[in-house]
Amino acid sequence: MNVFVIGVGLIGGSMAKDIKKENPEAIVYGIDINDNHLDEALSIGVIDKKAVYKDLSIADIVIVSVPVDIMVSELPKVLDVVNDEAVVLDAGSTKALICNTVANHPKRRNFLACHPIAGTEFSGPAAAINDLYKGKTNIICEVEKTAFKLQEKALAIFQQLGMRIRYMNPEAHDKHIAYVSHLSHISSFMLGKTVIEKEKNERDIFDMAGSGFESTVRLAKSSPAMWTPIFKQNKDNVIETLEEYIHNLEAFKTMIIEDDYDGIYKEMNSTNRIKEILNGIPLNKK
Amino acid sequence: MNVFVIGVGLIGGSMAKDIKKENPEAIVYGIDINDNHLDEALSIGVIDKKAVYKDLSIADIVIVSVPVDIMVSELPKVLDVVNDEAVVLDAGSTKALICNTVANHPKRRNFLACHPIAGTEFSGPAAAINDLYKGKTNIICEVEKTAFKLQEKALAIFQQLGMRIRYMNPEAHDKHIAYVSHLSHISSFMLGKTVIEKEKNERDIFDMAGSGFESTVRLAKSSPAMWTPIFKQNKDNVIETLEEYIHNLEAFKTMIIEDDYDGIYKEMNSTNRIKEILNGIPLNKK
Question: A58: domain range?
Answer without folding.
Answer: 2-170
